[in-house]
Recover the amino acids of this structure.
């Protein structure tokens, strides 16, 4: 489970700061012995919103494409608890877009309220599927990432 | 799945840098569609080694104690892939011990080799179980944390 | 992952045979190394639709009620694969309502098509929370179960 | 979580009835809000002992072989609870060996005691990887299954 971290809510991002949203139904077994969604599951929500965007919005064939995004770094700051049976809204934006890597920023929201229960990041490095050496992000995916980034409020 | 991050192996910590070790059998479903343990499961190994130490070494009754450790921050850097059916060795040390919080540092190792597949951190803030306000780490737990920290090579 | 079992689709139940429905967003890590939702996750969908119904429809306080439903038996027959990022519809009906136990019947559906990807059952025995001895299903819950059963087409 | 089912312990199988054993470290998040390993995770232990045996004992390359075992049916009867941080022993035997399918029987044991916490079954149908049509179990795997079956006490 997780707790409100020691920072003021005023400084936290809002839903509108993240252009893409995916609702995720929590599962009974997400709750741990403390009665709230276990901290590990937050990363499952991160992983899911990133990959759903890649498949559904960017059109990446994650199972057959020549390239593969490997997670090299992720992190999460927990601000409030989530509890089954609520539906969590996972929201996504581009943090930094490099030549071979992209940093996604994610926030998780409860159904009510505009403050995130968690904020975090997830870095993908693109490699070729066979040799697993870093490789440039393919042009189609780069365009989709640029569009996602452009949809972010300024 | 995960990739070797862009850093030299020479700078990575070794098994001996972490005094406590827990072997964790991987599960078939840990492997994701890319054929390696999914990045989310690495946090499950973090969460498990921390809580196993708390129960088995520090004697904390995680279900009934007056205080509760809430995860407020975690992070992981992925250096190499892990694959079912290997047994992962999760190793633990104290990173920073504060008045109401403790930062654990964790490394995950494959059966062979002395370089970690992942390194990361996990911060617990202690709160009272009912009001969930930050509270000092209980004396018994503090002593156990100090002993774990003292067991770290200098 | 799972396969079409050796039975004719004609004999399989349809959506309308199960009065209660819960959409569940699949997660990237549900997919196993074969590229489809792992068989274990089907039981997570079973567990989730039962508990969501208990909390949201029957009004049971699953964390504080004097009684507790313990799973003593479950089973699943797999008819077709499910794949991230699809949303699964889990549907529920009462199979058999006894004095201290209830057998739920569940079917999982893909977004398209009226044939279930899986059908199965889940048996709860009610016990008192402290002594864990079988105890009659509480009257309020029994009424909710009877109403769910009555909503099933005849 | 799970409960002792309504059957006498005398009728339950013992460790020695299952020739193959795999110890599986429980994980903190296996525990659900009732404080015991969630019923769904029992199937993860089933899935894991079957696949570990296939890879480590039968030498099947589960990711590249021409054939694939698809789970078409599984079931579990829960006799007693399991709780983190205990190590579960998953034990395996052959139930029925057919031309294109095999039924495994599994029992889960706590570290202490000789009565299973759960017993169940898991049916694999073999299909060719591409067309996914039932296909005979390959000769090498059949021999390994026959040897596992022969190792069962009579």
């Amino acid at each position: 489970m997780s707790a409100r971290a020691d920072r003021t809510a005023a400084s936290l991002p809002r839903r509108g700061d993240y252009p893409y949203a995916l609702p995720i139904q929590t599962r009974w077994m997400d709750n741990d012995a403390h009665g709230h969604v276990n901290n590990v599951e937050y990363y499952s929500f991160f992983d899911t919103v990133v990959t759903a965007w890649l498949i559904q919005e960017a059109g990446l064939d994650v199972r057959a494409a020549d390239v593969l995004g490997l997670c090299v770094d992720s992190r999460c700051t927990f601000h409030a608890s989530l509890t089954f049976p609520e539906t969590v809204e996972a929201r996504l934006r581009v943090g930094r877009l490099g030549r071979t890597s992209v940093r996604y920023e994610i926030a998780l929201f409860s159904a009510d309220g505009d403050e995130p229960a968690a904020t975090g990041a997830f870095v993908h490095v693109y490699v070729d599927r066979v040799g697993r050496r870093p490789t440039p992000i393919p042009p189609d995916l780069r365009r989709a990432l640029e569009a996602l980034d452009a949809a972010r409020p300024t």
Remarks:
- The interface with chain A takes residues 1-3, 5-6, 33-34, 38-40, 43-44, 47, 62-63, 68, 70-78, 125, 127, 132, 134 of chain B (CB under 8 Å).
- The beta strands of chain B are 20-25, 67-78, 87-97, 101-109, 118-128.
